[in-house]
Amino acid sequence: MVAAWKAAGLTYNRYLAVAARVVRRSLKEDKRLAAERRGEMDLRFAKWENGKQGESKNLAAALAESTPAASS
């Protein structure tokens, strides 16, 4: 039996991120704000091609761009 997140075409890390976002959004206002601050990321990544580093991008912004549902 295949896990639901795998059948949906998600990686486990993406599944965890979606689940955490859903839990944070379901909290009452004061608890939600505190949880959202803990969930913020300040990670950067860059793709390497032909031995050269590409543009460095913020991981949170790249995730938001790749999932249209995340912005709503």
TrEMBL record:
Pfam families: ATP-synt_Eps (PF04627). The lineage of its organism: Eukaryota, Fungi, Dikarya, Ascomycota, Pezizomycotina. This is Mitochondrial ATP synthase epsilon chain domain-containing protein. It comes from the Eukaryota. One of its GO terms (molecular function) is proton-transporting ATP synthase activity, rotational mechanism. Belongs to the eukaryotic ATPase epsilon family. InterPro entries: ATP_synth_F1_esu_mt, ATP_synth_F1_esu_sf_mt. Gene3D superfamilies: ATP synthase, F1 complex, epsilon subunit superfamily, mitochondrial. One of its GO terms (biological process) is proton motive force-driven mitochondrial ATP synthesis. It comes from Aureobasidium subglaciale (strain EXF-2481). GO terms for cellular component: mitochondrial inner membrane; proton-transporting ATP synthase complex.
